[in-house]
Each structure stands twice: as C-alpha cells, then as structure tokens.
Design a protein that fits this description.
Bound molecules: iron/sulfur cluster
Shape: globular
CATH architecture of the largest domain: Alpha-Beta Barrel
CATH topology of the largest domain: TIM Barrel
Order of helices and strands: EEEHEHEHEHHEHEHEHEHHEHEEHE
CATH class of the largest domain: Alpha Beta
Number of domains: 2
Length: 316
C-alpha cells in the first residue's frame, strides 16, 4: 500500500486524501450513510487520511464510515473561527461529533488571509494550546494566498500546509501557479508536510482531470492531494491514477465529461450579500437585488453556500 511521509510529522499517508466537502450539504448533500459508505470504500482500498472542516458538515459521514473500522486513519479538520474562543469550540465539536480524543491535524482555515500569522494570531495560539492539551496532534494552515504560504516557512509551529494549487492557478488570490509552487517547495524544504486542495479548481478542470492531477502530484515537495469523490468508480479511478496503475479509459471518459456549477435559487434570494463577502474569489455580486455568479471566477468551493442564511446556494 502506497505511503508517503507527510513532512516531519511522523505521519505516513496515502497521497490520495479523501476530501469530504462534496459529500455534505454544501454540495451533493449525501446522507451520512451514503457518504460514509464511499469513504469506507476508499479506506478499505488504502486511503488513510480524511479532510474535513467545521464548515463542511461532514462529521456524521466520517463517523458513519469509521463505525467498526479497525484500520489506520488520520482525520484533518479546519477552523475558520475569527477568535480563540470559537476556535476552541470548533475543535471540541469536531472531537465530540467524530467520537475521538484527538484530531491528527487542525488547520487554521485561512483562505482569505494574506497574513494569518498577524490576522489570526490568537486563533493560532489557541490551537497550539490545544496541541499541548493533547487534543490536536499537529497544527496546520490552509491557504489560498501565496504570501501566507511564504510566511509559513518561518513558522515551525505550522507542521502541515494545505495550499490551493492547480495548473491554471485558478483561485490563487495573489499570483500564479508557478509562484505558489515555489512557495510550496520552500515550505517542504523546511520540513512541513504538504497536501494540495483544488487540484481540479472545484471541478472547473474536470475535462482534463488526469493531466491536472498529474501536474499537482508532480510538484516539488507535494506529499498528497485532497480530492472530493462522489462514487465508488471515482474512488477507484483516482486510486489507480495516484498509484501509477493503468487508467480505466471508460471510467475516466465518463468522469471527465461531468460538469458542475453553482446554483443560486434567485427567486428566494434576499440580496443580503453575505455570500458576496464569503467568496474568496470575487465571483459573486448583487445585481438587481439578487446574487449572481461569474462562472469564470468561481472555483466551486461552496463557501458562499455555507454563508447563505436562506440556504439558496448549492454546488450541483
Ligand atoms: S461563488 Fe461561491 S463557490 Fe464560487 S468561488 Fe465564490 S464562494 Fe466559492
Ligand atoms: S447570502 Fe443567500 S440570500 Fe443573501 S444574497 Fe447570497 S444567495 Fe441571496
């Protein structure tokens, strides 16, 4: 079974990390049982790290997947909390709902911060305190900003990075894919474990999925890639690709012809603009009193869906 050292953490991971965001209510809305079955299938085939977040609402899916499972599994969550108190409550909720005493990694979910070490210093301090208390094994940083990844080099307390990168650079807020790749390599040289997000730009690069995944997997210092998967065929095709096995052309042709998009139920949109503020990519605007998306800019991350008090947005 393929295993790669995740930087200096001591963790040995399969490079295919299960990204659980698409399973939950922000995207496909699978039940915990349905989502749990998919995760369990991946675990039984060798995947051993699950990526979730306070925002994703997929703890029940993970808990269902792990019911009776005896194999090794690492669980990563993230907190977008603006202050220490809320960050602590996010971690405690994750522990409670996942039924665990310790989370393997908790990221400072810093998508929108150019300098999370200044802007979220108290949250980072709280996560490190929870590490000392034994509730977190490793503290990490998830980032859409190259500047945040560059700054992480000088922060040894950040042991794992979860940067946004794909071959077009879509979603990187302050530069190109090449510049992000250089920052990632520098972090890896400093001993951090790295696994990528948005290798397919939230589905925008699905037509060239294999080429896009190979690009990210081939970057210097890259230990793994989180991929959201919604069928057993998708799990098996990705596992084969990550392990260098011969591709199943029929499955990949089907997967690469799938299209996803952001759906806003504008008939019921109140025009409050919370989704616009939540968007990391300036892809939303209020036009004629309702939210409208610029599909060229949208990376289908679903953060706007989490911010909508009326539940009017879904990635479908
Ligand atoms: S519009 Fe929504 S899904 Fe698209 S990039 Fe913005 S927050 Fe993400
Ligand atoms: S948050 Fe929801 S209700 Fe408010 S503008 Fe956006 S889609 Fe409309």
């Amino acid at each position: 079974m393929k295993r790669i050292a995740l930087g200096n953490t001591g963790m040995k991971i399969h490079p295919l990390v299960y990204g659980t965001l698409p399973l939950g209510p922000l995207q496909a809305g699978l039940s915990p049982e349905e989502g749990g079955r998919l995760i369990r299938h991946a675990l039984e085939l060798g995947v051993n790290m699950l990526d979730t977040a306070e925002l994703y609402e997929t703890y029940p899916h993970i808990r269902a997947a792990l019911d009776g499972y005896q194999g090794e599994v690492y669980i990563v969550s993230k907190t977008h909390a603006p202050d220490a108190k809320l960050a602590r409550s996010h971690v405690e909720r994750a522990l409670r709902e996942l039924g665990r005493e310790r989370l393997d990694i908790v990221h400072l979910h810093g998508a929108r911060q150019a300098d999370p070490f200044v802007e979220r210093a108290d949250v980072l301090e709280e996560l490190l305190k929870m590490k000392e208390e034994g509730k977190i094994a490793h503290v990490g940083l998830s980032a859409h900003y190259i500047s945040a990844v560059r700054k992480a080099v000088d922060h040894p307390e950040i042991e794992v990075l979860h940067p946004l990168i794909n071959r077009t650079g879509m979603g990187i807020i302050d530069g190109s894919a090449e510049e992000m790749a250089e920052a990632i390599a520098a972090c890896s040289r400093s001993g951090k474990g790295i696994y990528a997000m948005k290798a397919l730009a939230g589905g925008n690069l699905i037509a060239d999925a294999r080429q896009s995944l190979h690009y990210v997997l081939g970057l210097a210092g890259m230990d793994g890639v989180a991929v959201g998967m919604l069928s057993t065929a998708e799990v098996e095709a990705n596992l084969a690709l990550f392990e260098g096995a011969a591709p199943d052309e029929a499955t990949w042709t089907t997967l690469e012809s799938k299209r996803r998009k952001l759906k806003i139920m504008d008939r019921f949109c109140k025009g409050c603009g919370f989704c616009v503020t939540a968007c990391t990519n300036d892809a939303l605007a209020i036009v004629d009193g309702v939210a409208r998306v610029d599909e060229e800019q949208c990376i289908l991350c679903g953060y706007c869906a989490a911010a909508c008090p009326e539940f009017m947005i879904r990635v479908v």
